[in-house]
Amino acid sequence: MVGNIKSNYLGDWTGINQIRKPIIAAVNGFALGGGCEVAMMCDIIYAGEKAKFGQPEIKLGIIPGAGGTQRMTRLVGKSKAMEIVLTGGFIDAHEAEKAGLVARVFPVDKLVAEAIKTASVIASYSLPVVIMAKEAVNKSQELPLAEGLHLERRLFHATFGTHDQKEGMSAFGEKRKPAWKHE
Description:
This protein is mostly helical. 50% of the residues lie in helices and 11% in strands. It contains nine helices and six strands, in the order αββαββααβαβαααα. It has helices at 2-6, 34-41, 68-76, 78-87, 93-99, 111-123, 127-139, 145-159, 163-173; strands spanning 24-27, 30-32, 44-48, 52-54, 90-92, 104-106. The strands form two sheets. It has a three-stranded parallel sheet, sandwiched between helices. A three-stranded mixed sheet has the order 2-4-5. Helix 3 packs across helix 4 and helix 7 (127-139) runs antiparallel to helix 8. The N and C termini lie far apart (47 Å).
């Protein structure tokens, strides 16, 4: 135990959360334990119809150690998280979608293409604004509502200092597609 504490075992995994560009997980199979925890670190989770999610660590005499208890609870609520963590059972893709763990379920053969399609849509927008939107949504999971609203307002005001805001609003008024400069 002391060795794990000294080495900050699993501490590096949180670096995924620090990536400023959006990350889409495409889960097509089993996402159990650490795999489920990595998926929950992503911004959007898409699942193939045959995907299974779970935190079976209890069956090994341990608990999730890379955010499984904390992220699962925020995503699916306390009761469902308790069921998943305390039984070590799995949920299928459709149940995961119903619970709020995944955004959408796709046929297995279309999963990756749909994830790429969503990534392409996101990539077609102003990068600084996408980064601000991601930050605002992520902070909603950490901040009290009043602080989150204050952050959102500050970020909203910050968008008006970008070239892309001016371009986006001009393009809207002129009924044309914006030409983002990502500045």
